[in-house]
Specification:
InterPro entries: AAA+_ATPase, ABC_transporter-like_ATP-bd, ABC_transporter-like_CS, P-loop_NTPase. Residues 1-21 are annotated as: Disordered. Residues 24-250 form the ABC transporter domain. Helix 4 packs across helix 5. This protein has two domains: 24-241, P-loop containing nucleotide triphosphate hydrolases (Rossmann fold, 3-Layer(aba) Sandwich); 245-310, Alpha-Beta Plaits (2-Layer Sandwich). The protein is of the alpha/beta class. Helix content is 35%, strand content 26%. The strands form three sheets. A six-stranded mixed β-sheet has the order 5-6-7-3-8-9, sandwiched between helices. The chain is elongated, with a radius of gyration of 23 Å.
Amino acid sequence: MSDWAPPTPAMPPPPDPNAPAPMVEVTNVTKAFGDVVAVSDVSFRVGPGVTALLGPNGAGKSTLFRVMCGLTPPSQGTVRVLGADARADREVRGRIGLAPQQDALFDRLSAHRFVEIAALTHAVSEPASAADRALELVDLDPRVDKPVGSYSKGMRQRVKLAAALVNDPDVLILDEPLTGLDPVQRNRMIRLFHDLGDQGKCLLVSSHVLDEVARIGSNVLVIAQGRLAASGDYRALRRLMDDRPLRLRINADRPRDLAAALVGGSFVDGVSVSADEVIADTTDIDRFGRHVAAVAKELDVRLYEVQPTDDDLESVFRYLVERRR
């Protein structure tokens, strides 16, 4: 049984007296578009280092980021970045870097010119040199003079990241920045995030990939259906998720015989059967995997596939929301 539990989303957790001052503080924030509530009563505080914002597509991550950057006002609640309202304080806006999820670049420009323009919008001194440094940080050659419209998805992602870094911000907000990157570049960018966090910068990095979050940062905010479903250390969250029953779909040539043999096994919590598959619930996936193969072999049943049906983010969030109620 885990000793970790999600906080009540309507109230921010009590401050840790030993923790550094929060660099981003979100208090009871709601954002609605007409009758559609995209973010509902979200509260959290984050300080220096890397924090992962985990949620499925459509959960409200991008809307929350836009509110934090001052690009759109909250319908209710307050956001403080570096102690100020980014929407009202231009100086604070200049200390924020944003890499949006949207793939919106000026395709006719070179990467260097695009990042240089980003530097100019922040009134960065020596914008050309700043663009050089930012592109080199993300492993792009600033001397390449070809339009970003010809770049791959991964290269375009890194151009957006360079534009977010060009003003040397204290707070970096990165919306799905690893999408489209190959494994080598993912590792390099995650290493860059950690290096920046170690320098005292605050990074909020969103992802919809559960296992990716473990590498991004140990501090995790989980958002589901516009609400904060959980927050805390990733390892505690992972332990909590490991306690929940996992449902598996088993395709076999004789599903009824297999289901009958599985019923009552100590490694199975429940079994149902249809014309061509068995649905089994288990809280011990490793033990189940070992035993189902042995049972099938003993019965001379041919297994075609053993596949989790709900080991995805949507089921994780449903579990967390139900647990919170």
